[in-house]
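User: My instructor asked us to take a sequence, write out its structure as tokens, and then describe one feature of it. I'm not sure where to start. Here is the sequence I was given:
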Amino acid sequence: MNFIILSYHLLFSNVVRMTVENRIGKYGFKYEGKGIEGWRFSRNIDDIVETVAITIILRYYSELRMELYTDVLGTTSSWIDVEYVRDINDLRKTLDEFCDTFDKKGEKVLNKMHVPHLKSFPSKELRIYLYENMELIYSRCPDRENFPINDYKQVCKKIAEEIRYLKDRPLDENVKKRLMELTVILGKAEINRFGWKWRWRQRQDWFDLVTKNNKFRDDPLLSIFTVYSNQHLASFLNNYESYEKMYGK
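Assistant: Let's start with the prediction itself. The structure tokens for your sequence are:
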């Protein structure tokens, strides 16, 4: 039985790689590999790495989306559709539909990600301070006990409630301080739930969370500042709900 499942997964993976590479290779995208989150195809435009990823939303490859993003700090990913896949024929049809949509608007979407678009982007100084002082920030957070880091779902909900409260306030020093606290709390909850670890990205002066095998990363700092900037609270909660489905123990 295990051999049958493995064979199906290999077939599935090969179909994704060959189909997508054949369709978007004309734009200069090359297959970069498969991680826990899915399959990545990238190209370099003016020293900016653009990536098209076929992302696994649910386990057992049952739900997929095409995600577009760049390595420019201050930009957020965009995705094309979310489709439920029942079998290999369904997969081929879904991938063709993804690529048809990319043909129509993919390059335009990626081009908009060449410049940061967050109204409130964390400065380099803030990022360095936060990374070097996480435990201090957490220990000084007066209401940290209200965010039970051993209850991941509850932490995400309470963070969304807190950001809803902050939405109409300008990014002054008090709001920055609060967003840093929420970043550390979210990171601690993810580490506790999934066993991830912090990583400093030297080239970008940024940090994120990665799985033990470095196949998947999450960015609590960017998530917190993004949802504060655009108030897409439902999207924030849905994103972290998908992590629970994919990586929950």
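For the description part of your assignment, you could build on this observation: The longest strand covers residues 48-58. Try explaining in your own words what that tells you about the chain.
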